[in-house]
Structure formats: C-alpha cells, structure tokens
Amino acid sequence: MSTIILVHGSWHGAWCWSDLARRLAEKGHSVLARDLPGHGEDKTALQLLTLEGYVQSVIATIDSVKGPVILLGHSFGGLVISQAAEYRANRIQALVYLSAYLPRNGESASDLTMQDKDSRVPSHLLFADDYSSFHINPETVEKVFYEDCGPENLMLAKSRLQPEAMGPFREKARLTDANFGSIERIYMTTLYDHAISPELQKKMYTLTPCEQVISLRAAHCTFVFDSEELLSRLVQLFPA
C-alpha cells in the first residue's frame, strides 16, 4: 500500500491536514503530513527559506518510508511536489494537485499568480517593510480562503496562519519529461475558489495535461474543516 504524503500550501502548516489525515487513517491508509520549513511548528527563520529547502523536506519524508508514495499538494504545495518529483520519480505513484499550482518547466508561483486575473489574493496581502515576506490580511482572509468554513473555524484558522517568505515564490521549477513528466498526475479543481481561480486551474491542467481532472464543490480551504468530499474522492482513487 502506498503512503499518502500531504504537502500544505502558503501561510499554513501540517495542522491544516488534521481532519483529512485522521479520516484517511480510519479508512486504513498510511498518511504523513509534516510542516514545511518555517511553517507550523518548524522554527526555521523566514530569511532562510527557499523552494529547494521545502523540496528537500518532502524528499526526506519520502525517504523515511518504504515503498511507493502518493504526493498530494495544496496551493503552493503543488510547486513543491512537482519539484520533488524530479528527484524521486521512481518512488512516486501519483501526484495529486488540490487547487494547486501546476507549473511548467521554468515557471514560478509568482509567474502563475500574475496570470490569475480573478484571484483575490493580491488585494488582501500585507507586506513586510522590506518585502521579504508577506501575509494574508487576517481581517479579510475569509474572503480568500475560508468563505464556507463558519465563524468558529475561521477564528481557529486565523490564529494559526503565519507570514510567508517571498523568496520561494520567485524561484522557478526545473522539470523534465523524463522525471516529473513520467508520473501520473491528477488535478482536483475547486469550483468556488477565490485564491487560485478555477480559470487558472483549468489553464494549468490544460497546458500540463493530467490523467484525471476531478471537480470539487469547494472553496480554496474547505478541506481544512470539512474533508468529506475530498476524502471520498481520494478513497475512490486510492483504495486502502
């Protein structure tokens, strides 16, 4: 049985997978969700964060288990799992993109964000004085990530979101057909997404075709507090 490795996106940590990871484990799956450097409980300084550092963290997780793995990346995590696939193509059964960046060779998260005319993210960012990091405005984060999560869950999420380093957003993916291109890709598009718009999602999975495209009736971060639809789809795709 493959191990499912869950890779979170910007401003979040492994905590965002708690509901899904628990439910997958109850279904008999082996699941790992760990903080990327500088996120969640990891205290790596913001100025030390790089895309390569994120990728090496995922590679270390892959190397810590035996057998094939499934990488599921959310949002910016899509860029991370894509680059990790370059280094461990022989270990990865599938790459799953959950409302995630799906880059082509030479593209960065910043490049993709600039193509997304319908994203609410740019208008809700707060930047550090030196522009080395940025944060989602806690007063308006609901409009970007958590529109369908309810007030109590929104308060919990706000208390856990952290600043994000700018550097990794500008770093470009270095991908090849021989490695990244050899792995099955599945895209899960979120129909009510205001962070990475459905239009950009469609553009990405059209330019980099996936074996399956699955539509979820969800906002960008619905799964954090209600993973039922996502769970159902994953169990269908990867029976325990």
From TrEMBL:
Coiled-coil positions: none
Q: Which Gene3D superfamilies match?
A: alpha/beta hydrolase
- Any Pfam family: Abhydrolase_6
Q: Which residues are in the AB hydrolase-1 domain?
A: 4-205
Keywords, A to Z, come to: Hydrolase
Drop me one GO molecular function for this one: hydrolase activity
PANTHER family with a match to the protein in the record: AB HYDROLASE-1 DOMAIN-CONTAINING PROTEIN, METHYLESTERASE FAMILY MEMBER
Task: Identify this protein by name.
Answer: Alpha/beta fold hydrolase
Q: Which organism is it from?
A: Paenibacillus hodogayensis
